[in-house]
Amino acid sequence: MASTSVRALEKNPVIPTSISPKPAAKYGITHSGWGWTVAFRRSGVEISRHFSAKLYQGEEAALAFAKAWRDEMLRAHPPVARQVRAQTLRSTNTTGTPDLSTRKGADGQVVAWRATTEITPGQQVSRFFSVKRYGAKAKEMAIAERHKQLQQMVGLGRPHPAEAELREAPPRVLPAHTSGPLIRREIPLRTNTSGIPGVRHVPGPHPEHQGWWAAITTTADGKRLTKHFNIRICGEEGAKALAIAERQKQLELAAHLVPRKVMKREGRLET
């Protein structure tokens, strides 16, 4: 007769460590450079995104957006169902069926087929089918038993204890003082002396020439918008103020410009 056993799996011994587990709030989030990176895996695929403190104007705001995005991705990509995961064939399996194994005699011949499934965390079901009793059907019976055992499995995998809590929590409300990320052209370069992105001082051709304050913006299609204001004519502060105002006009214009390729494509569609 086929033999069945149900046993509780022994938990792995606790290994003392000085490293504390990461808090649930920081699950999937690590500090990297000047900002935060969200990264976790689903079925071998990494889901990740970096939140720059420079773009979000501070590490606190970057972390808030990182947590909100992490929670959104966890809801959109839940862990695979335990039943599905249990059907993954491991590289060490030689039977062709997940969690199906054999028992061999002293002569190396198969004497029994065994179907084994961990139906709940810590509880394993196992059933043997003797080749002596069932012959060639022993393997087929073990496969059928394995399918029955799979039907008893419910729920999702549990990569981290905090995942279920984070997925089921309501969407995060971002702090009132946080705003969306800056676009790259809104961030001053290290060489910028004005403190305003796209506004910089242009030296004159010789030491006696005071130079210009310039407003420079590159549009989405690569067009460069530039206008200079002479310091000798407008004064230092006047030229700088005019350049700042011009920069704002350029940004507004750039936001409404449609890249040439898109315009051509739309024209062909209309004809």
Question: What would you note in describing this structure?
Answer:
By secondary structure, this protein is α+β, with helices and mostly antiparallel strands. It has three domains: 22-78 and 159-168; 82-151, no CATH class; 198-270, no CATH class. The chain contains eight helices and ten strands. The protein has helices at 59-76, 82-85, 131-134, 137-151, 163-168, 231-234, 236-256, 260-270, and strands at 3-8, 29-31, 35-42, 45-52, 100-104, 110-120, 123-130, 199-202, 212-218, 224-230. The strands form three sheets. The chain has a four-stranded antiparallel β-sheet with strand order 1-7-6-5. It has a three-stranded antiparallel β-sheet with strand order 2-3-4, covered by helices on one side. The protein has a three-stranded antiparallel β-sheet with strand order 8-9-10. Strand 9 and strand 10 (224-230) form a beta hairpin. The longest helix has 21 residues, at 236-256. The termini are far apart.
Task: Summarize the helices and strands and which ones pair or pack.
Elements: E1 3-8, E2 29-31, E3 35-42, E4 45-52, H1 59-76, H2 82-85, E5 100-104, E6 110-120, E7 123-130, H3 131-134, H4 137-151, H5 163-168, E8 199-202, E9 212-218, E10 224-230, H6 231-234, H7 236-256, H8 260-270
